Structures are given as structure tokens and as C-alpha cells.
Model the fold of this input.
Amino acid sequence: MTDLDQVVARKEYKHGFTTDIDTETLEKGLSEDTVRKISAIKNEPEWLLKFRLKAFRMWKKMSPPVWANVKFPPVDFQDMSYYSAPRKKPTRKSLDEVDPEILETFERLGIPIEEQKRLSNVAVDAVFDSVSVATTHKKKLMEAGVIFLSFSEAVKEFPELIEKYLGTVVPPGDNFYAALNSAVFSDGSFVYIPPDTVSPMELSTYFRINTEESGQFERTLIVAAERSYVSYIEGCTAPQFDSNQLHAAIVELVALDDAEIKYSTVQNWYPGDPETGKGGIFNFVVKRGKCQGKNSKISWTQVETGSAITWKYPGCILKGDNSSGEFYSVALTTGHQQADTGTKMIHIGKNTKSVIITKGISADSASNTYRGRVFISPSATGARNYTQCDSMLVGDSCSAHTFPYIEGATEFAQLEHEASTSKISDDQLFYFRQRGIDAEEAVSAIVSGFCKDVFVQLPMEFSVEAQKLLAMKLEDSVG
Amino acid sequence: MLEIKDLTGGFEGKDILKGISLSVKPGEVHSIMGPNGSGKSTLSKIVAGHPGYEVTGGSISYNGADLLAMEPEIRARKGIFLAYQYPIEIPGVNNAEFLRMAYNAKLKSLGQEEADPLDFDELLREKMKFLDIDEKFRERSVNEGFSGGEKKKNEILQMAILNPAVSILDEIDSGLDIDALKVVAEGVNRLRNGNSSLILITHYPRLLNYIKPDHVHVLSGGRIVSSGDFSLALELESAGYERYTAVAGE
Ligand SMILES: Nc1ncnc2c1ncn2[C@@H]1O[C@H](COP(=O)(O)OP(=O)(O)O)[C@@H](O)[C@H]1O
Ligand SMILES: [Mg+2]
Done:
């Protein structure tokens, strides 16, 4: 065994516990009736039921995409439950009414919904299986006019806003998983920042899958009105099961004139057994932002370290003139993980600008694919794109692939593309070790350095967290 | 403090070292000289514990302990330092940060607290100033894009920070112009004290005018073929290695 092999043997997944609470779970299987049931449980308005049913009918005619560079057995969509919620239904007037077991779960995960931590300047919405269980700092946000609610609550309190924007960025028929989510989505978060408002704090959602045979289908919708700004953070974990759980979420962002949305993700779903590859989350997520107004800006930053399979391409539709989209990504795959991730930048407005910086790291037998698409429409005169995709291989049996596509009226655009592949060599590791630094710390320093351009985009405390997470994932369990 | 006995080894089943014995006592300066390819760097890598090299026979004891049984980072923390003939580039890792990690690893192994970042910063500035290394090398990636001479100075900077007990300097003089050589040699001399030892590996005797060795050994064909005092180095200066390559007879 070389040094590198030893280093990449990982530590056990830390979040792999389940919480024993009484849940209300729908029977397995998916039919029109399931969709109606979900809508009924949630007491939804008629238009929303129609939206779901329309999506369901589209979904039935579609088949799962096969073009991604990932391999897995077909998912049996009839063999999972589409709704699971804690039975002691929190009325959510105050945190005291949330099941203490659930609060404890989030506490174990280090997620600050508990009272004392509410003083910190981050508002949190915690989603447990299918429902949102706690949203903090509601009052302070409301004072600023910022709406930050669980999706179900928002449907009740602000139906016009939801109806106006839901599905406008990711239409239900967009793709197989988008249609599925649109039919069965259970909960999620809704954010609205009014004109001329800077959100007084970072907003964040933590997702947790707890039930073995349920999928998680949440939906996030963020609307930033004229000249507003918000920074939003998403984190995820799941217990350790031998079976695979499906996570098929949709995130839609809308930025109006001169508005800016910064969306950061630190994803650490259970990746499956590192030796056998058994279990783990299938993370099939559709994330898209629409720079609808002029001079608007949407920036995606993601640190993807978990899941058995990751399939996601957060993108931007750059519709407003002078709008800009950014995508910064670190994707780490170890064990038998597979990631096919990247972005889609659609330039429509004049002088639109996009920046793509991705760092893919693979170790063990993992595979890591960057897939990016930059599309320049003929209206997008003066469009500019800069793309940089770097891959790092740790060890000899992993792989990295990049598929950058550039399409459309490229003669109007200014495009730059850079790519590199590097490897951590035994000589580099020995250099550290000769200076007294052990191999794990060495790999972690090299990988952190490699990802620096992305980490600086994350809000400070999450940048620290992400670096620790990366180090932990690469840590040697053998010693 | 360092006792090498009948050491044989190399890589991929081929012995480059064919029986080396060397005894280094505290405070001594040994010079190992020899033609290219004679195994000087191989010896240094084996002492430091490079996992790509294999020891097939003999022993190394260090302060009475079996050095060969120790992981390379343990050897380093116990005071073995190797200045590379060809220092390795580490893109993305900040030079000052790297030095701090190394320094803290050593403190930790001694059961001490990690250094206060500001105190370390001060220490680093002082050493850099003394070695005439520009401030900008703090923030650059370790050795990346450094010139040959800058890399060598950076090795000595690491040595100055870590204050090792036994330093093996592998051709620290190659790639340095005369001024840089003087600075480096002065730096090395300043670091010497009664307890720390030096092994200077060099192809050219030039360096030895600045750092005077107590013992000079000629390595050829994987063996030490001659040992003596400083006068041996002077003799090599005029006569070259020809005699010894003939003796090694391969
Ligand atoms: N990593 C290596 N792989 C293959 N051969 C090597 C390697 N390192 C050194 N050698 C060979 O081993 C011999 C001794 O090399 P080295 O120890 O570098 O000599 P020196 O430092 O005295 O010039 C040479 O024949 C050299 O080509
Ligand atoms: Mg050499």
C-alpha cells in the first residue's frame, strides 16, 4: 500500500445515526392518488393541486436521463414513500413545540436551531424528512420585510407570490426529476426579499433525511426584488442505511433588476459504504437561477462531498442585460462515490457575463465528472464567459472527466477556457513528512490549496466548516 | 548520535548503496563527496525514510534507537532534516503556512502547545531577513516557480525554523551564485551549535571553503572508498574523482 492509499482510507460517516420518533409515512408507491393525498394532507389550494397533477402526468410519460457519467441500478419509483413527517405535528408557533427528539437530532448535527444559538446571526429553516420543523429568527426578518418561511407556510400566507413564481425557472416538464419533484414535493423554504433590502442575516436551510424508505423532495424558491441582496446557505446530512434514498430537490432563484442572490451549499449526504459502495443517497437535484432583471447577479457556490451519486448542474439564465452568473464548485468523491456535476449558463441579455470555476477531487475508486454548458443566444451581444475546470486525482484507481460544451452564437461572445489535471505525488507527500507533517495533514493542505478559489466564495464560517469536512473525508482511519 | 552500519539498499530490487558505514557525533560536520550517480542522494533519502527506497541490509541507529523502524515524520520530528537536492513544488500551499505546520508538528511531538501565530510570524520574518529572502516568499506556494537558488534558500529557511539535530544538505551549493552561497553558508554556520551535526553532500569542494568539515568521505559506486580530513577535499579539488571511480571499478 502506498502512502496515498493509506491516506485516502476514510473515517466513518459521522452523521449516520437515525432518530427514533413517531412518523406519519404514506404507503409506498406513486400514483395520482398519492399526489392528491400529499396535497390534501397539506391542505393546499386548488391551483397547487393542479400544478402537481399536471407535473405528475408529464412525469409518467418521461424516462430517467441516461446521459450522465454515473452507473447505478434503476430506481424503483413505486418502492418508496413520498411523504414522511413527524407525527407530533409542530404547530411551529415556537420552537418549544417542536419534538425535542428532533431538536436533539439537529443539535447532534451541530445545526443552530436551539434557543441559545438563535442569537447567532444566521436564520435557519430545518427540514426533517418531508417537512420543515423549525424556522428561526422569523421576527427579526419580518421587521426587515424579509419573508423566510417553510414552503407549506408560505403557500398559506403568501399564495400570490408562490403562484406567481413557482415553476417559472424550472418548469415541471423540464426533466424527469423536475417533473417528479413538482408532483410530490413535500416542503422546503421560501424566501422573498423586498425591493431595496439587504437581508439582515444569512439565511440557511438544513435538510435531514431520517426515514429509510422515504425519498426527500423539497423545493426552495427565492425571489430577490429590485436592488435587494440575500445570501443563502444549504446544508444536508442523512443517516446510514444499506438501501439508497432518493433526494430529488428543486431550487429556483429569481433576481429582479439590480438584485443579487448568493446561494451556497455544503452537501454531506451519506455516501454509502466506502468499501462495498452499498447504500447512500442518490442526489438528483435541479437548481437554477434566473437573472430576470438588468444588472442582476446570481452566484452559486457548492461544496459537494457526500451522496453515493450526485447529479446536479446549478445554472443561470442570464436574461436581463448586464446580468451575471457565477458557479464555484468543489466536488470531492471518495470510496465508490460518483459525481456528475457542473453548470449551465444561458446567455440571453446583452453584455451578460458568467464565471465558472470548478475543482473536482477524486480518490479511491471514485469518479468525478464536470459537465458544463455555456449557451450564447444571438441576442446576447457582448456576452463573456470564463471557465476554469481543474481536477485532482488522489491515488491511481480514481478518475476525472471534463465535458465543457460551448454552443450558440459564439461569434458575438468572448470566451475563455482553462483546464488542468493534477495528481498528488508520493514525492510531495514525502516532502511534507520529512518536515514532520503527517500524510493526512499533507493531503488536506494540498486539497485545501487546490480549492482555495472556491472556498473564498463561501461565507466565512462555512468556509471553515467546508475545509474541515474535506479534511475529515480524506482522513486516514487506519492511522 | 547517528550510526550507519553496513547499509545496503536502493530501489526496485537494485542496491545502489553497497555497504555504507558512517558515524556522526554531536557537533560534527561530515562531508560526503563523490561523482554523479554514486548514490549520495540515495543515502540521504534512505536516512530520511523515503518510502520509495528500500533498505536491504545493515542498520542505522539514532541516539540509540532504530531509525529505520521509524516513520519519516517521526524521524523528522526527532531532528533529522533533509535539504533536498531538488526541492519539491507544492502548488496551492502557502509557504508560510507550510512552515508553520512543520513547526507546530515539532512542538506537538515535544508535548508543547502550538505556536501563537503572531509569535511564529515574528520568528519567520527574522529568519527570512537573515537569509536575505524577500517577504513575498511567505505568501507564495511552496517552491512553486522558485528559481534554483531560491529553492535552496527556502530549504535552509526550513532548517532555520526547525532547528534540527542532524541536517543532511544534499548539494545545497548547486544552482547558487557566489553571493547566495555565502549567505546560505553563513546561515548554516549560524545554526550550528555544539550538539547539532551536519552532513554536507556535495559534488564540488567549493562549499567546503565556507563550511569547514571535520571529516570528508568519498562515495563511489555505492561505497565509501576513502575518508579523511579537510585535506582530502583539497586533494579532490585538484585531482578530481577519477582515481576513485577507478577504485570502485564498475
Ligand atoms: N528514483 C530513481 N529511480 C531510478 N533510478 C534512480 C532513482 N534515483 C537515483 N537513481 C539511480 O541511482 C543511482 C544513484 O543516484 P543518486 O543517489 O541520485 O546519485 P548522486 O546523488 O550521487 O548523484 C544513479 O544511477 C541514478 O540514476
Ligand atoms: Mg544527488
User: Anything to note?
Assistant: Chain B has a mean pLDDT of 91. Residues B 40-41, 85, 170-171 surround magnesium ion (ligand 2) (CB under 6 Å). The CA atoms of residues 44 and 117 of chain B lie 32 Å apart.
